[in-house]
Write a structure and sequence with these properties.
Layout: E1 2-6, E2 9-12, E3 17-24, E4 31-37, E5 44-49, E6 55-57, E7 65-70, E8 75-80, E9 89-97, E10 109-110, E11 114-119
Parallel strand pairs: 2-11
Antiparallel strand pairs: 1-3, 3-8, 4-5, 4-9, 5-6, 7-8, 9-10, 9-11
């Protein structure tokens, strides 16, 4: 299983970026998938989609970020609008067989991450 992120880069504050995460070799039909910071050792959820399609956002991104996926393309997206300098950092795609775990350190799979830089 591989998760490959793309779409990062540098923009000015107030701008937008869209991250993509394409999954390869993923045999599961029911799973948790999402975007995280500080993975894999101290992951923090940015946004995730659970097995029942429940979406959870971190409070800091509510109203600015939108998570979505295209199952046919095996791709997860994160549309990030109204970006702030404090959004800067590495974003990781993570996935887990079954429901999203309470302990995010137990997520089954992580991408290598992609850098987002927001200039003030």
């Amino acid at each position: 299983v591989r998760l490959v992120e793309s779409g990062g880069g540098s923009v000015d504050a107030g701008g937008s970026l869209r991250l993509s995460c394409e999954s390869f070799g993923y045999p599961y039909t029911s799973y948790c998938i999402g975007w995280f910071r500080h993975a894999p050792n101290e992951p923090e959820r940015v946004a995730s989609i659970d097995t029942d399609d429940e979406i959870v956002y971190a409070d800091s991104v509510k109203g600015r970020f939108t998570i979505s996926r295209d199952k046919a393309k095996h791709t997860l997206y994160l549309q990030m609008d109204k970006l702030k300098p404090e959004d800067s950092g590495m974003f990781y795609c993570g996935s887990h067989r079954g429901n999203c775990p309470l302990r995010l350190t137990t997520m089954d799979y992580w991408g290598k991450g992609i850098l987002v830089t927001i200039s003030s």
